[in-house]
Design a protein that fits this description.
By secondary structure, the protein is α+β, with helices and mostly antiparallel strands. The chain is about 25% helix and about 25% strand. A hairpin with a 2-residue loop joins strand 1 and strand 2.
């Protein structure tokens, strides 16, 4: 998680594609969303709270589905 935040909050550079590729490895790749209706209400059925941390005075929870 620390490495993700370092990459995410690093100063903008001309290589935004490179930054996106680095961040992609940390993002979920097994999610499927309905493609027929963009306004569908999605609901989280269950999850496990892995941790709570504060970044720039914003408290954030890390969940695992």
């Amino acid at each position: 998680m620390t490495q993700f935040l370092k990459i995410y909050y690093s100063p903008a550079s001309d290589d935004s594609d490179g930054q996106t590729q680095q961040l992609t490895q940390y993002l979920a790749s097994n999610l499927t969303l309905p493609s027929t209706d963009k306004n569908t209400d999605l609901k989280l059925i269950s999850s496990t709270l892995n941790g709570i941390f504060t970044m720039d005075t914003v408290k954030t929870g890390q969940l695992c589905g």
